[in-house]
Amino acid sequence: LNCLYALIKKDQDQAQEYVLKLSDMIRFTVYEGNKEKVSLENELTYLKNYIDLNVTRYHKTIDIQFSDSIKNPQRQVAPLLFIILLENAFKHGVEVLTDNAYVHLTLTEDADSLTFEVKNSFDPNMEQTEEGIGLNNLKNRLDLLYPNKHKLVVSDDKSVYYASLQILLE
C-alpha cells in the first residue's frame, strides 16, 4: 500500500494498473485460495501479477525471467503452492540485494508432471540457518494434497538459491 501511495503522486496510470493487479491477487487469494483446485492459467496469472507488483515495489533493476510451457491451461492444481517459492526469492534475494538481483522462473507441464523452478540471487552473508515457516507450510500442504506424488528440492550454492517443485499428475 505504501508503494501504491507513492505511485499515485508519481504516475497515476501505473498506480491504476497496480490497483487492478493487487485487487486481482486479493480476489484470487480469497475466493480461489479456498478451492481444492484451480486452473494452471489462473495460478500463472497470480504469479505474474505478484512479479509485476514486486518489480514496481523495489526501485531497482531486477533481472526477471519467467518461461512457461503449459499445454493444458485448464489443468487443475491445488492453489497457492508456487507462490511460497516465488515470495522467498523476493524476500531473501531481491529485497536484500543492492546489485545484480535476479529471479529466474520456469513452469513446465508435461503429460506426467508439473514442475516449478526458481533460481535467484541472494546475499550469503544474510543466510538463515533455520528453515522458514513458508517452506514448512508448503511441505505440509504437499504431504496432504499430493502424498507420494511430489518432489521438493531446495539448495543454495554461494550466492544462488534454487528451488524446484515437481508434482506428479493423475
Keywords:
alpha+beta; 5 helices; globular
SSE arrangement:
Elements: H1 2-10, H2 12-32, E1 38-39, H3 40-57, E2 62-69, E3 76-77, H4 83-94, E4 101-109, E5 113-121, H5 133-145, E6 150-157, E7 160-168
Parallel strand pairs: 2-4
Antiparallel strand pairs: 1-3, 4-5, 5-7, 6-7
Can you offer a commentary on this structure?
The protein has 170 residues and is α+β, with helices and mostly antiparallel strands. It is built from five helices and seven strands; from the N terminus they run ααβαββαββαββ. The chain has helices at 2-10, 12-32, 40-57, 83-94, 133-145, and strands spanning 38-39, 62-69, 76-77, 101-109, 113-121, 150-157, 160-168. The longest helix has 21 residues, at 12-32. The chain is globular and about 50 Å long.
Low-confidence stretches: none
Q: On the 0-100 scale, what is the average pLDDT?
A: 89
Range of helix content? 40-55%
Shape: globular
Major sheet: arrangement of strands: 2-4-5-7-6
Largest sheet: 5 strands, mixed
- β-strand percent reads 25-35%
Radius of gyration: 16 Å
Task: Please sum up the structure shown.
The chain is an alpha+beta fold. 43% of the residues lie in helices and 28% in strands.
